[in-house]
Design goal:
By secondary structure, the protein is mostly helical. The protein is built from 21 helices and eight strands.
């Protein structure tokens, strides 16, 4: 029953009325937390079996788990006790992350193709270009594939399953969500929906138009075979069944058996060619788009990037809120995001605990004092700290408040983070504080005309910026000169 106590403590930390209020994402988080604790597969299996029992005896008590915790799987599989699960984990762990500078090049290249798509399709529809063998026309499909992949986190098999009319929008609490329907094949979930930015509707429109000639030819081939008299062979029946299931698909190509959705192997070749056409030598592969999505999601959630601002409408996002917005979403995608989140946080915390890493802010000073202690297992310390510490970026500092903290006032009064016991400033934010120091020096002239009160405030903020830069090992005046020479 030790496993039951662990799970109930976890459920209690969520402050839910009862176990009946748990959502699939909560269970995914529980599994993730147990795994990162470094427990053996046998121990994990015993913990997860208890969760299955709560579902099995759901009829005995209305306050227990109303759904199976991991459909199409088992406690043993979730614990990593099968070879398939371990192989998948190794594959995900080895997926290289597309570098930011390469991702920018690829995105701009795809956007450039997208901006010419309507014009090229007009030419094609006038019969001046081939609908089936023109490289520039085919490039439209590959660009849309890449863009939808990095903007939704869909796998290549799910992208190839997108059909006509797959996009929809809905408004909840004044926020418009855009959804993209597909079929999830890997875990046999079936119909799922992915959150997409408003741009996704434009991509779907172009793909519906792009695929129209292929879908038309496929429909004609189906009709021709259906009208043939006589007994059909097993091969013909198989082709007919497959063709009927593909007739509304968008990402089509021409294979040995005719018009079919592009396979994962073919996408591997297409994306490498797409990357070369963009002018990079990066070895682009389909699953890297999902990894880039998870990485970007995490960076956005922690405030470093606002790449997903249009998509999620908020400067920070709670994944459980996102999941509750649509229970048909792919849970495995959120599991990938959680893994990426832990890896990123672990890297940040590891940097903080480096002996010579300068830190500023109240929390920064505490962590520098913490380094003086001797810990038996530094790796476990970093992992445990990463898991327990709530990290948020204000754009100029890390906020480690485990409650509401200052309520967000530090976002606007950045100087307050320098003395706040929840504030931590590391080398990532040096350029921000160099610019703040330069800006406040410029304000001194204006403040003098406004009176003593303005002068006092500007001087206080200038002193705070100078102290932070000094604590981070930067000479404020030298930093200003470097910044000016760089911009000059």
């Amino acid at each position: 029953m030790k496993g039951l106590r662990t799970f109930c403590r976890y459920a209690a930390s969520l402050r839910l009325p009862s176990l009946a209020d748990l959502q699939p994402l909560h269970l995914a988080n529980f599994v993730h937390l147990q795994k990162v604790a470094g427990l053996a597969p046998s121990t994990l299996t015993s913990k997860f079996l208890v969760v299955e029992l709560l579902h099995r005896f759901r009829d005995e008590h209305k306050g227990t788990l109303p759904f199976h915790p991991w459909p199409e799987s088992s406690a043993v599989d979730m614990a990593g006790g099968t070879m398939t699960r371990e192989a998948d984990a190794r594959k995900v762990g080895l997926t290289p992350l597309i570098p930011v500078e390469v991702a920018q090049i690829l995105f701009r290249h795809a956007e450039g193709i997208l901006n010419r798509a309507e014009e090229l399709l007009d030419v094609r529809d006038r019969g001046e270009r081939s609908a089936f063998r023109d490289p520039e026309i085919t490039a439209i499909r590959d660009a849309c594939f890449y863009l939808i992949g990095v903007l939704t986190g869909m796998r290549s098999s799910e992208l190839s399953s997108i059909e006509v009319g797959a996009g929809r929008s809905e408004t909840k609490s004044g926020i418009t969500f855009h959804w993209l329907a597909s079929i999830e094949h890997k875990t046999k979930t079936g119909a799922v929906e992915y959150l997409m930015p408003a741009m996704g509707h434009r991509l779907l429109h172009i793909m519906e138009r792009w695929s129209a000639p292929l879908r038309k030819r496929l429909a004609e081939q189906i009709v021709t075979l259906e009208r043939q008299s006589g007994k059909r062979t097993a091969e013909e029946l198989q082709w007919l069944a497959t063709a009927r299931s593909n007739r509304n698909r968008l990402f089509l190509g021409i294979g040995r058996s005719g018009i079919v959705p592009v396979t994962a192997t073919a996408w591997g070749r297409n994306l490498k060619q797409f990357a070369r056409a963009a002018g990079t030598d990066w070895d682009l592969a389909p699953h890297q788009m999902r990894r880039l999505y998870a990485y970007t999601f995490v960076r956005h959630r922690l405030g470093d990037l606002l790449f997903l601002k249009e998509q999620f409408k908020h400067s920070s996002i709670n994944m459980s809120q996102l999941y509750s917005a649509n229970p048909l979403q792919d849970l495995a995608l959120y599991d990938d995001i959680l893994t990426e989140l832990m890896q990123y946080k672990t890297k940040v915390v590891a940097q903080w605990l480096e002996k010579d890493e300068p830190l500023a802010g109240g929390a920064g000073r505490k962590i520098m004092e913490l380094r003086a202690h001797d810990f038996k297992n530094r790796t476990e310390l970093i992992a445990e700290t990463s898991r327990r510490v709530n990290m948020r970026s204000t754009g100029h500092s890390w906020c480690l408040a485990q409650d509401e903290g200052c309520g967000g006032s530090g976002i606007y009064a950045k100087g307050s983070c320098s003395t706040c016991h929840n504030g931590l400033i590391d080398s990532r934010f040096v350029p921000v504080w160099q610019e703040a120091y330069r800006h406040h020096k410029e304000l001194l002239t204006d403040a003098e005309a406004l009176g003593p009160g303005a002068m006092k405030r500007v001087n206080e903020d200038l002193a705070k910026a100078a102290k932070i830069l000094t604590d981070l090992g930067i000479d404020p005046e030298q930093g200003e000169e470097d910044a000016q020479s760089t911009t000059g």
